[in-house]
Design a protein that fits this description.
The chain is about 40% helix and about 20% strand. The chain has about 575 residues and is α/β, with parallel strands linked by helices. It folds into three domains: about 5-195, Pyruvate-ferredoxin oxidoreductase, PFOR, domain III (Pyruvate-ferredoxin Oxidoreductase, domain 3), CATH 3.40.920.10; about 200-370, Rossmann fold; about 460-564, Rossmann fold, CATH 3.40.50. The strands form four sheets. An eight-stranded mixed β-sheet has the order 7-6-5-2-4-3-16-9. Strands 11-10-12-13-15-14-20 form a seven-stranded mixed β-sheet, with helices on both faces. Helix 15 links the parallel strand 14 (about 330) and strand 15 (about 355-360).
Length: about 575
Amino acid sequence: MARLFKDEVTLAIAGQAGQGIQSIEAIVGPLVKRSGRHYLSASEFMSRVRGGANSTEIRVSSRPVSAYREGIDLLVALHAEALPRLGKRISPATLVVGEAEKIGYPGMIDAPFSKLAAEAGGALYASTAAAGYLCGLLSLKAEDCLAYIREFFARKGPEAAERNAAAMRLGHAAGAAAGEGGIRIEITPDEGAKGNLLVSGSDAVALGALAGGCDFVCGYPMSPATALLEKMAALSEKFDIAVEQVEDEVGVVNMAIGAWYAGARALVSTSGGGFALMCEGLSLAGAAESPLVIHLCQRPGPATGLPTRTEQGDLNLALYAGHGDFPRILLAPGSMAEGFELGRLAFDLADRYQLPVFILTDQFFADSVQDCPAFAGLDREPERSVVETGPGYRRYVLTEDGRSPRGIPGYGKGMVRADSHEHDESGHLSEDLELRARMVDKRRRKGEAARAAALPPRLYGPEDYRTLLLCWGSTLGTLLEAAERLGRKDLAVLHFPWLYPVPDQAGDYLRRARKRIDVECSSQAQLAQLLHGATGCAIEEKVLKYDGLPFGTEGLAAAIERLL
C-alpha cells in the first residue's frame, strides 16, 4: 500500500499497560528532535498498572506543533484491543502496523516485533524493536539511533545496552524496508529544532519553580499531579531543594505554610480530590497572610472521577475554595513557555502579595511532551520581599496597599507572629470589631494591588476581529490550530494565562467582539461564568468537552464552524 506523508504525520502507539508504550515514546521523541523535526506526544491511559487499553499520539512535523489531533495517519497496534478502543479515530486512510497474527486487522502491515525481539535476546526487547521500526519509517539515521540506544540503556549495563541496540538495529531495518515498500514519510528538517528543549508540561512548571527560587516541595501522590512531584525530586539531586512526601493532603498544605513562615519558598502539587482536603489550610494562609504556591493539576471529577484523564473543571474550586473572604491569584499556562514563565512568576507573586497563588494545569498539559526553544531568563534572580525585622516589628501593620513588611523568625530582632484568628497589627488575637473590618479591608487591598499587576490576556489573530474565541490553559494550542484551519480573517483567539483577579483589559477585548465563543474542557463553562461576572459581558456561545479527552483540532474546528 503506497502512501506519502509530506511534512507532517500523526502516529499512534496503542496497546495494554505494561507493553512499553512509554518506553517507545521515550526513545522516539529525542531522536526525532535531534534529527531536526518538531515533535509532540500526548498520552491517554487507563487507571491500572497492567492491561486495559492505552495509547500515545505522536505528531512529527516540519513546523512546531502543540495541538492534539483526532485523526491517525499510522497506528502501531501492540494488542488487538487497540483497534476497538481507537475505532472512532481510525479512518479508511489510516495505516495499521503490527503483528498480523496477533492483531488480525484486514489490510494491516505486518511488523513482527516479537520475532525481532527474540532475535535480539527475548520478549523484553519488543518495545525497543517497535521504536526502531518507527525510526526506520521516519528515515532517522540508523547510526544516530544506535548511539542513542546505547546511551539510553548504559545505566543498565553493557549487556542490556547491546541487546537493546540489536533490537533497535533489527527494528530500524524492518521499518526502513516498509518505507521502501511504499510508506514514505518525508518530514523536512528544521535546523532550529535540534537546539530545542524536549519537555513535558510538568517539566516546564518544575523548571519555572526552580527559577522562581522554590526550595521546598511537598505533596501526597495523586495523578496527574504526581508528575511534578517526581520532577522536583529529580531536580533536588542537583539543586538545593527539599522534597517531602507527606502522609496526607492536610499535612501537605500546613507543612508548606510552615515552610514559608520559616523563610522557604514552598510548592504544593495536588489534584482536585487532594486539594479539596486543603481548603481549611488555604483559609489559614489567607488569615495569616502567608505566601503559598499550589500546583493544581486537574482531572475529571467529582470524587475519584477519571484519575488519569483530563478536564478543566476545577477553576471554580480554586476560585472559591476556603471560608471567608481573602485574595488569591490564579494562573494557567497554555504552552511550555508559559509553564516556565508562570511557574517562576508564581513565587514572586506569592512573596510580593503574601497570598496563595495557584498554577492550574491538567493531565493533557502535564503529560504532553513537545520541543520548544530554551526558556529565557534562567539567570534572573527571584524577587524576594522578606525584610529584616527590628524592635517593635508589627507583622500586620496596616498599609495603603494592604501589604505589610514580611519578616521571618531569626532574621532581625523583631518577634514574627502568625495567627489563624483575627488579629491586631502585631499578630495577637483580637475581637475588636472595628479592627476586624480594617483587617478585612487590608486584605482586600492586597487583591486590588495584585489585579493592577495582572498579565493581560493574549490575543492571537487580527485586532479588528468580529468573532472572539476565548480559552485558558491547555486548550490554547489546539484552538490556535483549529482557528488556522478555519482560515477566517475576522476570527481571533483570546487566551487568559492570568485568570484571577480578572485583568482589567478583558472587558475591552470582549466588548469589541460581535460574537464571543467560549472553548473549555468543562461542562459548565467556568471561564465564561468568571468573565461574565467580572466584565458584565455575556458569552453567547460555548464549545464544551468533558469526556476525559482533550479537544482535537478537527472536531473543534467543525464545532466552531457550526456556530459561525
